[in-house]
Amino acid sequence: MKRKSENDLTAWKDRVDRKPLVVRGARQVGKTFLVETFGRRCFESVLTVNLEQKDALHRLFEGMDPNRIVQELGLYFNQSVVPGKTLLFLDEVQACPKAIACLRYFREELPGLHVIAAGSLLEFALREFKHSMPVGRIEYLYLYPLTLSEFLSALGEDRLVSWLENYHVGDPFSDTAHVRLREFLRLYYFIGGMPAAVAAYRERRDLVEVQRELTSILTTLQDDFAKYGTRAQQRNMRRVLRHIPLSIGRKVRYVNIDRETRAGDLRTALELLELAGFVSLVRHSSANGVPLGAEASNDRFKPLLLDIALCGNLCGLSLPDDAELLTVQEGRLAEQLVGQELRAVGPCFAERPLFYWHREAKNANAEVDYLWIHDGIVIPVEVRSGTSGSLKSTHVFLAEKARRFAVRFNMDYPSIGDFSVDHRKKTDAKTVSFTLLSLPLYLVGQLDRLIQEQYPTGG
Prior knowledge:
Blueprint: H1 5-14, E1 21-24, H2 31-42, E2 45-50, H3 66-77, E3 86-91, H4 97-109, E4 114-119, H5 122-127, E5 139-142, H6 148-154, H7 158-166, H8 175-191, H9 195-204, H10 207-223, H11 231-247, H12 254-257, H13 263-276, E6 279-285, E7 296-305, H14 308-315, H15 323-344, E8 354-359, E9 366-368, E10 370-374, E11 377-383, H16 392-401, E12 405-410, E13 415-425, E14 428-440, H17 447-454
Parallel strand pairs: 1-4, 1-5, 2-3, 3-4, 6-8, 11-12, 12-14
Antiparallel strand pairs: 6-7, 8-9, 10-11, 13-14
Helix pairs in contact: 1-2, 6-7, 8-14, 9-10, 11-13, 11-14, 14-15
């Protein structure tokens, strides 16, 4: 199961100035598999130390002495650790906070040794971290569920992946590719990007097995709630988690989750789910410039779930022939898909927060689903599940922010064109001229490249 992050790991391995690497991500997104696969491919040996299973080894890190740690680990596992030839992998590192603190000394005293740490609950460990953080002496890699391209690759559809990666707007369009990609996109809605679910489908081509795997993943994730907070908080986390699929594309209102529970308690539960990586929040930004986070609101946000198939599973979506149920949920799933793909676009060494824009006015509300930054310019991104739909909110945004470029995702063929519309605001009216890049949903992962190719100079 090829992950694009393997290329990032290879680049990290070959850098002279590399630092110990910490792989971050929610449970079951494939962190251990990724690191061990990379290690077997690029090193003579891999020494994996699971600090959740080997708690007797925690005391080795108390002295903060990398040379002694490596020597003792070699003795314990009866394995040589040779800088440049061995990858030392500290898995579930959150179970031993001192091991996190110790990473700085590997950087200073054993710079020739390749060290990777990984953990699913790192955000909780770091929140309560009582040691000196190795600031500037470690680096991060963020891992998410498989993207649509990685999903296609896992199913052996490398030709389709190559077509996606090499398509340029304006090229002759392949009807065959369009039909096939629409079919696989619909399949991705049901299978998603969790490695265990993708593996279940790849091996047996049985969607019932996939649903069984997804249900197991959700059960396991919820069983982990015991590690995050009190029993009351765990109950609230389950309430919030069940509500998230119904709130995709909508502002969260706590009263709609549970009228009997205080908003503050539900907010805490949502924050815990975000720390665990199960939920990400698309925050409202006034979008007057970059960074978007400078004008973001902590009180106005829309949720996304970790994975689109988990979202569908919680909604009761089961099999692709359940057309009526899919039609009901397809708009939310399209917005989940775009957000999920956008999070995985770009540099792996930093999280990519997501933002949207919303203007509330009497009889004149407007909302843009996502905001994208290109060369310091804010670009509105609209999402449609079908092939049609107006762009009134985009027109409002372009007029108010004096922008000239917009993106739309839908299920139609790709296109680009220049448009002019009359925008009225109270008694004023003006013409808004802009370029619209319209792309099918299966090209979300190529957004950065395609904008780069089409964005007008000075736009």
